[in-house]
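Regression test case RT-17, inverse folding.

Input:
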């Protein structure tokens, strides 16, 4: 028997608080817990559309292609505001694989040939609806056919980095890399390096 067999949720009301860059809403829900007791609970939810991210790995040079860009939440919480991350972006209605090919090219200038789907995950399920599709791809220097750096009309200002995979764990431990999706993909790469050829 599952602990939550008696649990259920009923949405009582939803109110939009903001609908600019992304919609933020507040919910009143009646949550019946695992003991059968019902409680009125308030939650605020940030409605993010699906996204994708990718680990670009060059096995000949044993390097990963990362990007650095400004992130306001990091700035507001006292972290360095220009975060090191894997290439990523919203699907914008595209299939995840199409979207991540587009984002990799826009952000890094690397053409992605064979894409490997790894898994999907919520990164902040307590308040954000965004689900991220995780991918990996092998690249080499001949795949860099553009400059990358992001799209000017979207005010993207991106630096492309080529970092030895072996150094990334130390960067995580030193606090130089603190983005969840990036840490997940770099740890996956360290565990699965032999399959990235």
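Golden output:
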């Amino acid at each position: 028997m599952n602990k939550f067999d008696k649990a259920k949720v009923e949405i009582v009301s939803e109110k939009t608080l903001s609908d600019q860059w992304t919609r933020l809403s507040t919910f009143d829900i009646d949550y019946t817990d695992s003991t059968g007791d019902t409680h009125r609970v308030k939650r605020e939810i940030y409605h993010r559309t699906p996204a994708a991210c990718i680990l670009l790995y060059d096995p000949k040079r044993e390097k990963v292609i990362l990007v650095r860009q400004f992130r306001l939440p990091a700035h507001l919480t006292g972290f360095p505001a220009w975060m090191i991350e894997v290439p990523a972006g919203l699907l914008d209605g595209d299939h995840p694989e199409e979207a991540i090919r587009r984002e990799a090219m826009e952000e890094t200038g690397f053409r992605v040939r064979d894409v490997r789907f790894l898994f999907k995950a919520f990164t902040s399920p307590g308040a954000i609806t965004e689900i991220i599709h995780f991918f990996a791809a092998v690249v080499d220097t001949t795949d860099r056919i553009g400059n990358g750096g992001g799209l000017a009309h979207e005010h993207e200002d991106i630096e492309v980095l080529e970092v030895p995979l072996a150094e990334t764990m130390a960067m995580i431990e030193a606090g130089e890399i603190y983005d969840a999706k990036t840490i997940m993909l770099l740890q996956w790469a360290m565990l699965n390096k032999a399959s990235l050829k």
